[in-house]
Amino acid sequence: MTSAPADRGDLARFPDDWETALAIVAHPDDLEYGAAGAIASWTAAGKKVAYLLATRGEAGIASMAPEEAANLREAEQVASAAIVGVTSVEFLDHPDGLIEYGLPLRRDFTAAIRRHRPDLVVTFNHHETWPGPRWNTPDHRNVGRAALDAVADAGNRHLHTDIGPAPWEGVRYAAVAGSPSATHAVDITGTLDTAIASLEAHRAYLDGLGSGNWMADARGLLTAMAQSAGERYGGRPATAFEVILC
Ligand SMILES: [Zn+2]
């Protein structure tokens, strides 16, 4: 498999002219596998970031009953967020593994965008494939697309008129982590270790993957991802995003 040449050009510097971000993803751990190093650098610079999780991650640990896993994974996500300076973490209760794209999902995200009034919306890969390519999951595709669509919904005063507090047209950028079409990067030289610690906070999840699973090696995986992005960003450890103007 080869990447398209257009995907291998240098990454641009991530926009800095924003103050408030809302990150909308499907599962506990999604942000830690794709964006936490960047988020840590943003909060260290005084920017405000909040997390919205579409699920509680109840179907993510094969050896654990869903309700037990949901409670544990919620707690791990809150701890993980705190490590990168994020204290606002909300969970919707869409069904893990079975999230459908549709108006209920867009409506929930619209409500969150109108409440948080972010300049930047961060989400996780909405494309059919990961870089590589490997096939993506329906939860990520559906949540990513609904989050991007909800940016416009939130600004349209004629949609979801019962959801307050008021329409919000202020989202300037959307940033997609884990995208096969990355365009921009954030230097995470100073926050890579923090990002690794935030993924390692998902202890029960990582243990559930088994020690031989490459996804369970937080340090190895995040270091490799940072180096891979860095090859297109001046050799510095980096987190790559697809940035979309809103
Ligand atoms: Zn996920």
UniProtKB/TrEMBL annotation:
Alphabetized UniProt keyword annotations: Zinc
InterPro entries associated with the record: GlcNAc_PI_deacetylase-related, LmbE-like_dom_sf
Q: Where are the transmembrane segments?
A: none
Pfam families per the record? PIG-L
Keyword Zinc carried by entry: yes
Signal peptide annotation? none
Note the SUPFAM superfamilies from the entry: LmbE-like
Q: Which domain of life is it from?
A: Bacteria
Q: Identify this protein by name.
A: PIG-L deacetylase family protein
